[in-house]
Amino acid sequence: MIATADLPAVNATLNGTTAVLLSLGYAMVRRRKILLHKTFMLSAFGVSTLFLASYLWYHAHAGLRRFEGRGWIRPVYFAILISHTVLAAVVVPLALTTVYFGLRSRHPAHQRIARWTLPIWLYVSLTGVVVYLLLYRLFS
Q: Residues 127-130: contacts with CB within 8 Å, 24+ apart?
């Protein structure tokens, strides 16, 4: 059983895993290995879904944590956090739509929206790890 206090680290690991899976999925589509692309991207979607469930459960039970950093890191942290949060809300419908078009073999629509979804999703996944490191490891 995973303790509530361990969930931020689990969530950061899920975010990092999502970033790796997205990168591998992108590499596979560039190599025209469509089945591997689909496998990596659906895995990224599954890991992201698991992350979201874990994140919501954690915050429902543990509440919020204040950032303790002072000086120049404070505005840097909040700039990362705000951009991460806004884009995390944006990426959910983008990812759902991208996956839908891909599974329906609507490739032109899938490609058009994936050009926006991928960089945003990667940014959200990577900044999720950065927020964890700043909030729970470097300035706790």
A: 127/80, 127/83, 127/84, 128/11, 128/12, 128/15, 128/51, 128/84, 128/88, 129/12, 129/15, 129/16, 129/19, 130/80, 130/84
